[in-house]
Amino acid sequence: MTVLERAAAVAAEVRDPEMPMLTLADLGVLRDVRVEGDVVVASITPTYSGCPAMATMRDDLVHRLTDAGFARVEVRVVLEPAWSSDWITEHGRAALRDAGLSPPGPAPTVGGPIPLLLGPTRRVLTCPLCGSDRTERVSEFGSTACKALYRCTDCREPFDHVKEI
Amino acid sequence: MNDESVYDGLLGGDSSQWAFGTDFEDPLAGVDTTVPAGIDATELAVYCLMLGDDTLVLSQRLSEWCSRAPELEEDIALANFALDLLGQARLLLARAAAADPSIVPPLPEGSPVPAEDALAYFREAGQFRNVRMAEVPNGDFAHVVVRLLLFSIARLAVLQRLRGSADAVLAAVAAKGVKELAYHRDWAGRWFVTLALGTDESRRRLLTALEQLWPLHDELFTAHPIEKSLAAAVDPGEVRAEADAVLDQVLAVAEVERPEPIGTRGRTGRDGLHTEALSLMLAEMQVVARAHPMGLW
Ligand SMILES: [Zn+2]
């Protein structure tokens, strides 16, 4: 294994502090890992502008890489292109489902004018707990900026849905 | 007990004992903040302050709603909006400081306060460039709905154009902000309609809030000279037609008549002219940071 491969493997295993079933790589937040001289440089993209987990992600990357023997670690922010929930990997989506969360559907396309939506956001969701497709939204805004709260009308359990952005 | 402070062991050394670390996280760490050729760095910095102060001040007002909204879900929604706007403010103030470090208020030698915090906590009200719509005190729930609707319609329209800004940092902040503002606008639009078509009391409160905030609406589209001259900026006057169309869409569904236009005269929030409410808000927001200019948070 080269130094880069080893560093990339360590970085890819760092987990999201708020959804620890996801690695930063699964979440699509880890954009790049490279070695510049004797410095490991990891690049991350914020999920939301105000995501308070960013500082933790950065600290965790530094700690994990330092613990793995890389003396110098730098974490850079990449703002462009903006993170999209479409970047969550298939592996990450499966991990969300296994943990009882509903993964996001396709993100709305950006570019043209953004239509005003005065009706409730309609999503066809599958209950991650029992598989039923009879669900109802409790709140568009959930425990963190990236989640909406739903409940299943069959098994009656509430669950988080990771929003499309 | 001896003279040792119980807090001595908490500072310095290994930061792994903290859930969120102790190092300040630069929101633009590693981002190329070179000002593009042909862009005036000072004007760019002031423009970033304008947009950043709008979101910082409105974020503070929305935060005041925390634990006071009519139901838990709406409380969380408002807190989420506040967080989005605060995140945008951090990026914009950091961008302003990087473009022109001379705009950052001077602090005592060796102060660990980062530039974005120096801008947020150590400027006087007259140095803030936010529109006055952002600063007026909170009222009832209808007030926050109307304020957020009017602000987010205008801001979303500006950010959509700003995605093509000549400044790559501003363009990136805008591209992110568009996705967030679309959520804020839709939430406010839905509640506007719900309150307008709800009970007599909810409609009365909604119309009262609209009447109170309407005199500040025009300022959202009144360009400061820098918003016209800076190539990396968006002239808010140019998005007025599309913003009006969106507002009319909401008003039509809500069966509310558009109030008569009230123009903006003289100096505005963009020039540093504010209502008394901003000083009072800042006094509370800034007091701890100002008491400890050498503080490490
Ligand atoms: Zn179920």
Automatic annotation (TrEMBL), chain A:
Taxonomic path: Bacteria, Bacillati, Actinomycetota, Actinomycetes, Micromonosporales
Species annotation: Actinoplanes italicus
Name assigned to this protein: Ring-1,2-phenylacetyl-CoA epoxidase subunit PaaD
Highest taxon listed in the record's lineage: Bacteria
Limits of the PaaD zinc beta ribbon domain: 122-163
Residue ranges annotated for the MIP18 family-like domain, each copy included: 13-66
InterPro entries: Fe-S_Maturation_MIP18 (IPR052339), FSCA_dom_sf (IPR034904), MIP18-like (IPR002744), PaaD-like (IPR011883), Zn_ribbon_PaaD (IPR056572)
UniProtKB/TrEMBL annotation, chain B:
Pfam family, one: PaaA_PaaC
Name the record gives this protein: Ring-1,2-phenylacetyl-CoA epoxidase subunit PaaC
Superkingdom of source: Bacteria
GO cellular component: a single term: cytosol
Listed InterPro entries: Aromatic_CoA_ox/epox, Ferritin-like, Ferritin-like_SF, PaaA_PaaC, PaaC
Example of a GO biological process term: phenylacetate catabolic process
